[in-house]
């Protein structure tokens, strides 16, 4: 079936439809991920997005349904050059998998030309449609993308991820399963709560530390969450990942900016400023921190992207707060970023020791 990927600037890329036959519109994102396609499609970060994969052929190792990052698919559509019909063991082919998820797809698209166009003109809205006339382009231009993306992916009810170690409250902005796995490996006793949870609701759980997770959308759409962070950060160690990192920065009078070349890649080099160590980690973000505001704040920069100097990690000089813009849980991508979880646990233990010393002297 002939279908078209239509960008809001009027550019049209023809292809062949597969998956769901519905018309879909979303933010077009260029992904350079070579592996972990299952994780990319089910990542809550991709809520409201059409993902265009730049690898020549998708699904060459089959699809492993154990690699989900959420129960349901999150993205609005997928764009590929070609796909493999290969299956391994109990897996299914990429096209059959996308069909089972009821996601619209379009293949045989010139993804290299598409990636070049987005690199030159920036991220924009796009639709997968059956026609490409003037009316279709006008529809895309007029459509306003919803600002409530976090609301769509955040848990509606609190739930536990039990263990016997530190009590970690995770504010779900679009939580990936792999974050829970990493905390479980470290014996953390986690409780996941809705992004609108109040200070009182979080404090009633008596956390040793709080994590603000990754998630979709723009951080300025979450002013109440920023206000909650401003109160909680005075009393609890906090880790922000992705969107959570941006919210922590904004809660401390820093500003964010849209990246001219967004980061959507599973193996992008990041340098640890203090040691010079290079880590290869997963990135999935279109925003970054404005360095002018970071330098004037009480944050220090802990990590930067090697290729463009983007700030990828921060830490507060006085408060037990840290954050990374990359995704340390490695889903997909290398495992170099796992140390972030260890550093956060060390930070919590340090605070607990200090509180213990103070209580002895009081």
UniProtKB/TrEMBL annotation:
InterPro entries: Anth_synth/Amidotransfase, CarbamoylP_synth_ssu_N, CarbP_synth_ssu_N_sf, Class_I_gatase-like, CPSase_GATase1, GATASE
Domain annotation Carbamoyl-phosphate synthase small subunit N-terminal: ranges: 1-129
CDD domains: GATase1_CPSase
Gene3D superfamilies recorded: 3.40.50.880, Carbamoyl-phosphate synthase small subunit, N-terminal domain
Keyword terms: Glutamine amidotransferase
Catalytic activity: hydrogencarbonate + L-glutamine + 2 ATP + H2O = carbamoyl phosphate + L-glutamate + 2 ADP + phosphate + 2 H(+)
Matching Pfam families: CPSase_sm_chain, GATase
EC numbers for this chain: 6.3.5.5
UniProt keyword annotation of Transport present: no
Name the record gives this protein: carbamoyl-phosphate synthase (glutamine-hydrolyzing)
């Amino acid at each position: 079936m002939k279908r078209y990927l239509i960008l809001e600037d009027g550019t049209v890329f023809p292809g062949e439809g597969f998956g769901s036959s519905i018309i879909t519109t979303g933010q077009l994102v260029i992904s350079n991920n070579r592996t972990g396609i299952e994780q990319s499609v089910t990542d809550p970060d991709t809520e409201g997005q059409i993902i265009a994969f730049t690898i020549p052929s998708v699904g060459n190792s089959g699809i492993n349904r154990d690699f989900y990052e959420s129960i349901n698919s999150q993205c609005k559509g997928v764009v590929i050059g070609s796909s493999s019909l290969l299956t391994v063991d109990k897996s299914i082919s990429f096209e059959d998998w996308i069909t089972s998820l009821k996601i619209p797809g379009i293949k045989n698209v010139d993804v290299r030309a598409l990636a070049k166009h987005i690199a030159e003109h920036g991220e924009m809205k796009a639709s997968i449609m059956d026609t490409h006339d003037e009316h279709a382009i006008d529809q895309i231009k007029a459509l306003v993308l919803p600002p409530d993306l976090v609301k769509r992916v955040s848990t509606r009810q609190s739930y536990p991820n039990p263990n016997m170690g530190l009590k970690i409250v995770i504010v779900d902005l679009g939580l990936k399963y792999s974050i829970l796995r990493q905390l479980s490996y470290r014996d953390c006793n986690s409780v996941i709560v809705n992004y609108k949870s109040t200070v009182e609701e979080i404090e009633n759980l008596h956390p040793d530390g709080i994590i603000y997770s990754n998630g979709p959308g723009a951080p300025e759409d979450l002013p109440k969450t920023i206000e909650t962070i401003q109160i909680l950060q005075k009393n609890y160690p906090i880790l922000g990942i992705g969107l959570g990192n941006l919210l922590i920065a904004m809660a401390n009078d820093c500003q964010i900016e849209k990246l001219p070349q967004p980061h959507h890649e599973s193996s992008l080099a990041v340098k640890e400023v203090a040691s010079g160590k290079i880590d290869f980690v997963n990135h999935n973000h279109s925003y970054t921190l404005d360095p002018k505001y970071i330098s004037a704040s009480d944050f220090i920069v802990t990590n930067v992207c090697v290729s463009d100097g983007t700030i990828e990690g921060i830490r507060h000089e006085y408060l037990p707060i840290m954050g990374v813009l990359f995704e340390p849980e490695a889903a997909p991508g290398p495992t170099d970023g796992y140390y972030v979880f260890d550093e956060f646990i060390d930070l919590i233990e340090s605070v607990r020791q200090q509180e213990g010393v103070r209580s002895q002297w009081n």
